[in-house]
């Protein structure tokens, strides 16, 4: 679907640049509701989430940031453990199938 973006890069770890891009995309996606609702983005305290550029991009995008204390993400973000876990398992299985079908084991799509 057009509202899904895949990012391919050397490392699978996110960084401040990725997060700024995500916040920009989120602001665009939430634009229709901005007159009535205030977006709040919940983040854990990973170093890249605390970067000043992430906070600056969120401020420009009028998205509030709320940080979840260490060891409480499982409690405060049930989507992470119940929804995204299922999605991640699906994507891992799909990727494994593509890699197994490839003569080199690499996935190019």
Structure overview:
It is a single chain. This protein is mainly alpha-helical and 109 residues long. The chain has four helices and two strands; from the N terminus they run αβαβαα. It has a two-stranded parallel ribbon with strand order 1-2. It starts with 15 loop residues before the first helix and ends in an 8-residue tail after the last helix. The model has no long low-confidence stretch (mean pLDDT 87).
Please give a quick description of this structure.
The chain is built from four helices and two strands; from the N terminus they run αβαβαα. With 109 residues, the protein is mainly alpha-helical.
- The SSE string, one letter per element, is HEHEHH
Spatially, the strands of the biggest sheet line up as: 1-2
**Helix/strand structural class:** mainly alpha
Q: What is the overall number of helices?
A: 4
* Mean pLDDT level: 87
Rounded Rg: 17 Å
Shape: globular
End-to-end distance: 15 Å
Instruction: State the low-pLDDT regions, or none.
Output: none
Beta strand count: 2
Classify the beta-strand content into a percent band: 5-15%
Helicity level: 40-55%
Question: How would a crystallographer describe the biggest sheet?
Answer: 2 strands, parallel
């Amino acid at each position: 679907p057009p509202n899904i973006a895949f990012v391919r890069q050397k490392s699978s770890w996110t960084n401040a640049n990725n997060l700024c891009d995500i916040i920009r995309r989120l602001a665009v996606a939430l634009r229709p509701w901005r007159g009535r609702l205030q977006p709040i983005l919940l983040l854990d305290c990973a170093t890249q989430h605390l970067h000043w550029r992430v906070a600056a991009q969120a401020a420009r995008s009028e998205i509030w940031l709320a940080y979840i204390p260490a060891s409480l993400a499982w409690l405060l973000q049930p989507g992470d453990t119940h929804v995204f876990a299922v999605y991640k398992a699906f994507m891992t299985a799909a990727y494994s199938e593509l890699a197994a079908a490839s003569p080199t084991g690499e996935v190019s799509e």
